[in-house]
Amino acid sequence: MNVMKIDLYTDWLDTVKEIFRGSGYPLPEEMDDRDVAMSYFLQTAQSEADAALQLEANQERLATVQKLIGDHFETVILPDIRSRTAYTGDHFVFKWVYNQGEHVVEQHSMYRIPL
């Protein structure tokens, strides 16, 4: 039985927090998820309304990617992981990462899905 863990939006939020920490302007620990995301999008948005639209679009996009991975894991992704990597286990942890572009990486096999 395969066990899969995936929460792409939380991974994205954790990256945003790390970006702010690394810039010397860490976000308050008690800040909720929406405020973290708004802080990120307000950096480049022309208005708060524009930032809110970007936030919603990003949430929807990551939810769609996560659903696609879940829906196609057994039929497409798992066989591809098995054929491209040496990983034979049954635990899969998918993480959103930014490394020369957006990717979803399965941590045990290092299988990478570019977005």
What can you tell me about this protein's structure?
The model has no long low-confidence stretch (mean pLDDT 97). The protein contains 3 helices and 4 strands. It is an alpha+beta fold.
What does the overall shape look like? elongated
Q: Please bin the fraction of helical residues.
A: 40-55%
Low-confidence stretches: none
What number is the mean pLDDT?
97
The class by helix and strand makeup works out as: alpha+beta
| Major sheet strand order | 1-2-3-4
Number of strands: 4
State the helix count.
Answer: 3
Characteristics:
115 residues; alpha+beta; 4 strands
Can you describe this structure in just a few lines?
With 115 residues, this protein is an alpha+beta fold. It is 53% helix and 18% strand.
